[in-house]
Design brief:
This protein is mainly α. It is built from eleven helices and no strands. The protein has one domain. It starts with 9 loop residues before the first helix and ends with a helix. This is Zinc transporter ZIP10.
Length: about 290
């Protein structure tokens, strides 16, 4: 999809994919994962109401953990940006700062003869560039760390789902795919904006994606025990609800504010309905699909 970035239809396609991810992830959480987690099949007691409540509590804990994770990443990113501003301010020449504050004509400032600039100002300029590169690098690492942690939890969910039921694994993998496609494209664009080369950005994306295989291996190992897999279903439902309702829907609202016409709203609505319909069909005909997949 990278060659489509320069096309006029790219933004509309991205809006549809984000909405599709909202429908698939929230639909998978509400129509498939939570009903499975709350049935208490492993408890062996139909009158047990404590286990479903505790599993619902795990869903709530997953939402809180993802909130704390994103808050921590935002704090580290803002701290890095503040340090960059402090370093740039400390390296600038006070005489130059006074001259810029007293001069309101920006064109006169830009036409200063570079040969008359003192050596310490030239060193400050190059040092400022160095700190800008460091800040851009820190932003890139924040993106890679956040993406890697998301991929780890996605792999955990897919592994646990496939170990319990093929249809459940297929539904979870489809929901992750619909979310990760626009998410990875967005991360790819952020890495390019930090000044990273295309091949390096692709390599870092692949590196962070490898963590999903570790999560999948852990999920398959845990999923051998049915009771454990049900707890993972509850945790995955919380992560899917948080990502779809907290991360993706605000992004959709921002895209709607920037859009020029009603077409984007129709595309977003179609994406949500399509994703939710897919999850509903999988949930209703799960037994038939399990027989079909053998």
């Amino acid at each position: 999809m990278v060659p489509l970035v320069q096309k006029t239809c790219y933004q509309q396609l991205l809006h549809f994919l984000v909405a599709l991810a909202v429908g698939c992830m929230s639909g998978d959480a509400l129509l498939h994962l939570l009903p499975h987690a709350l049935t208490s099949r492993a408890a062996g007691n139909s009158h047990d109401h404590i286990t479903p409540v505790l599993r619902a509590m795990v869903t709530f804990i997953a939402i809180v953990l993802f909130f704390l994770l994103e808050a921590l990443l935002h704090y580290m990113n803002s701290k890095s940006t503040q340090n960059q501003k402090v370093d740039l301010g400390a390296q600038s020449d006070p005489k130059e700062q006074t001259h810029l504050n007293e001069n309101e004509d920006s064109e006169a400032v830009t036409k200063l003869d570079t040969e008359r600039v003192p050596i310490n100002q030239q060193h400050s300029h190059h040092h400022g560039k160095h700190h800008h590169k460091d800040a851009a690098g820190s932003v890139a690492w924040m993106v890679i760390m956040g993406d890697g942690l998301h991929n780890l939890t996605d792999g955990l969910a897919i592994g646990a789902a496939f170990s319990g039921d093929t249809v459940a694994g297929f539904a979870t993998a489809l929901a992750v795919l619909c979310h990760e496609l626009p998410h990875e494209l967005g991360d790819f664009a952020v890495l390019l904006q930090t000044g990273m080369r295309i091949h390096k950005a692709v390599a870092y994306n692949i590196f962070s994606s490898v963590l999903s295989f570790f999560g999948m291996a852990i999920g398959v190992w845990i999923g051998k025990h049915e009771s454990a897999s049900l707890w993972i279903y509850a945790f995955t439902a919380g992560t899917f609800l948080y990502i779809s309702l907290v991360d993706l829907i605000p992004e959709m609202n921002t895209n709607s504010e920037k859009s020029q016409g009603f077409l984007d709203v129709i595309l977003q609505l179609a994406g949500i309905i399509t994703g939710a319909s897919l999850m509903l069909i999988i949930a209703l005909y799960e037994d038939d699909l399990s027989y079909l997949f053998g």
